[in-house]
Amino acid sequence: MFITIVPKNHKEYIQFIKYLKKNEVPWEDAFSVENSRKKGVFTVYRTYEAERTKEGFRVIFVHSSTKQKEDEARRQKKIDKAIEQLESLSPKLNAYHLKTKKEIKAAIDKIVKDVKEFIDVRIVTDRRQIKVKVSPGRPSLKSVYKNKWEFTHRIEWTLIEQGLIEASRIDGIFPLITNTQLEASEVLGKYKNQPFLEKRMYTKKSILEKGVKRK
Fold first, then answer.
1. How far apart (Å, rounded) are the C-alpha atoms in residues 16 and 31?
2. Per residue in 153-169, pLDDT tens?
3. Which branch of life, at top level (predicted)?
């Protein structure tokens, strides 16, 4: 018998998360557990059993109310950090290594790398006509000038509401894979009671890759 967690880069996880971002699934109440550090605060668990893997293993997705709050807080922290960095970047534009749109975009991409689905950043180019002296010598009534366009860049950003909505729909989710025939809530209960080392994600040498047959 085995019960382990499915890594986020696995097909079953990717497909379900993509579906859940835009659709509802019939979650089933599993159980709740009181927080050992906060009396009266409970973590509520729900489960949803997806299609079996091609090897015949069961995939059970779990929603944890505590993990939901943690995921939301973690995402908001990243967004806040990115916005703070964008605000810091803004007054530095049009000077030194931030004169061209290419240079500015590179700086922006680095800042929003982990939150690009939540923050839309635009580079806005403004232009104004200026007079540039083209005749030699000091400025005088005889000086010759020509008109020239001067371009400057600034950045604007907004939050991507759809991205935030979709992200909130998958907060608190983690998937289990098993070869047992227990009820989904029992599978979760047994997983939570396993020693820490037994909860680790499977690797190339895991029971799944070795093709362990269902018991």
1. 22
2. 999 999 999 999 999 99
3. Bacteria
- The first and second tokens of residue 2, run together, are 């085995």
Residue type, 178: T
Torsion, Cα of 160, 162, 167, 170 (10° steps): 180
* Burial degree of 123 (CB within 10 A; 0-12, 13-18, 19+): middle
For residues 146 and 110, the answer to whether their CB atoms sit within 8 Å is no
Q: Mark the ranges of the chain whose per-residue pLDDT is less than 70.
A: 195-215
pTM comes to 0.79
- 3-class secondary structure for the chain? CCEEECCCCCHHHHHHHHHHCCCCCCCEEEEEEECCCCCCCEEEEEEEECCCCCCCCEEEEEEEHHHHHHHHHHHHHHHHHHHHHHHHHHHHCCCCCCCCHHHHHHHHHHHCCCCCCCEEEEEEEEEEEEEEECCCCCCCCCCCEEEEEEEEEEEEEEECHHHHHHHHHCCCEEEEEECCCCCHHHHHHHHHHCCHHHHCCCCCCCCCCCCCCCC
